[in-house]
């Protein structure tokens, strides 16, 4: 993974999280009152504008009409000048969780509809042709959104943009659904080749990490206690999200992903997630 306009330490941190990703039980945080506020965004916005100029347009009119490549994220970062509603879901650990801008709910649904039309008739892909860091059309349980932006699993099936993060030994692979922030494990019979044009659209969920905190030097991963502390706090409080650093990662296959380092502070000012983890001995200050 390579980064745009950010220090090399961010590259190492992000790579470690991506390669160490594993399937976990995701807890839905039923709270759509989270706000995001950005302090500095000029470099990121400039990079997005340049990427949008270079991006080839899809031959699919439906895709172009409803999901304009990169324009969505330009609008997203422009909105950072004032608070906007979002939801934090799919917490892997304090170094990897997802922020959902509620304003992108409609685009996510349109993406799934357009991808289904383009991929449903294609033959499944062989496991030998699946590569880590590459996007595929992945079929899994339908993800439908309610009015507050929290998605619910149904019995229906649909196709979603899945980034392969690990190939398993049992004929299955682990995919991160880049528009929903969750990971799924599926067999190759549920994977289709990626249709042209869909790879040029930026991910519609934003991966985040807590700024200034990490695991202890003698640990290999976050403790269950630290993860549960964060999940419990997000259930019990409404948070403001302040973005400290912004990254862009691009895989060897050209998949372009946003990533942010953030501070979570409760809206009533009674707690700050980052410092509380350190003070309670659950994280190391970096």
UniProtKB/TrEMBL annotation:
Classification via InterPro entries: SNase_OB-fold_sf, Tudor
Domain Tudor, first and last residues per copy: 88-212
Name the UniProt record assigns to this protein: Tudor domain-containing protein
A GO cellular component entry from the record: cytoplasm
A Pfam family the protein falls into: TUDOR
């Amino acid at each position: 993974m390579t980064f745009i306009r950010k220090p090399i330490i961010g590259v190492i941190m992000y790579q470690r999280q991506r390669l160490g990703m594993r399937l976990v039980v995701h807890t839905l945080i039923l709270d759509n009152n989270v706000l995001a506020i950005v302090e500095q965004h000029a470099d990121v916005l400039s990079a997005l504008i340049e990427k949008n100029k270079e991006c080839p347009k899809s031959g699919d009119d439906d895709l172009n009409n409803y999901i304009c490549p990169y324009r969505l994220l330009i609008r997203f970062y422009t909105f950072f000048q004032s608070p906007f509603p979002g939801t934090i879901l799919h917490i892997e650990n304090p170094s990897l969780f997802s922020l959902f801008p509620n304003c992108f709910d409609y685009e996510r649904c349109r993406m799934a509809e357009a991808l289904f039309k383009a991929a449903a008739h294609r033959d499944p892909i062989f496991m030998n042709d699946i590569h880590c860091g590459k996007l595929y059309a992945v079929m899994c349980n339908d993800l439908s959104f309610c009015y507050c932006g929290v998605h619910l699993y149904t019995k229906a099936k649909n196709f979603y943009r899945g980034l392969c993060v690990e190939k398993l030994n049992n004929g299955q692979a682990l995919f991160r659904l880049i528009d929903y922030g969750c990971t799924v494990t599926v067999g190759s019979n549920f994977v289709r080749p990626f249709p042209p044009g869909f790879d040029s659209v930026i991910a519609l969920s934003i991966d985040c990490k807590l700024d200034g905190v990490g695991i202890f030097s003698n640990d290999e991963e976050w403790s269950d206690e630290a993860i549960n502390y964060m999940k419990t706090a997000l259930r019990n409080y409404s948070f403001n999200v302040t973005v400290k650093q912004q990254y862009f990662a691009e895989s060897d296959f050209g998949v372009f992903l946003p990533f942010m380092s953030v501070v979570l502070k409760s809206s009533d000012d009674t707690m700050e997630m980052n410092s509380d983890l350190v003070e309670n001995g659950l994280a190391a200050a970096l």
